[in-house]
Amino acid sequence: GAELERWQASHEDVVDSCRDTLSRLEQVHASLMGDMANYVEDNHENLLEGDFSLSDFVDRFGPRLAHLNTMLAVLRPLAAAQRKPEDPQQG
Q: What is the tens place of the pLDDT at every residue in 43-87?
């Protein structure tokens, strides 16, 4: 915790960028999750019946979701830094 706080204090410009990026990537993630849910809804029977369909599904969504999840996991703690009291954006 203390190490993260020191890093955040030393890289405030990066922390602000991380907040913006996190918000945008969460929207991308939600969109991809929606696409995945629609794909499963439309192809449920094929996914149950064939290895090819399941492999195609995993190839289509697995790597992108895995990488996005990793990026979000890195960004969330960085973006969670407390804003200084004199920051006008703080509530």
A: 999 999 989 999 999 999 999 999 999 999 989 988 886 554 445
Closest C-alpha to 31, from 68, 79, 63: 68
- Tell me how far apart the alpha carbons of residues 84 and 50 are, in angstroms, rounded to a whole number: 55
pTM above 0.90, yes or no: no
**54 Cβ partners below 8 Å, 6+ apart?**
47
In whole angstroms, give the CA distance from residue 9 to residue 7. 5
The contacts of residue 14 (CB under 8 Å, 6+ apart) are 78
Please give the Cα distance from 50 to 62 (Å, whole number). 17
d(C-alpha 69, C-alpha 54), whole Å: 21
Q: Which residues contact 48 (CB under 8 A, 6 or more apart)?
A: none
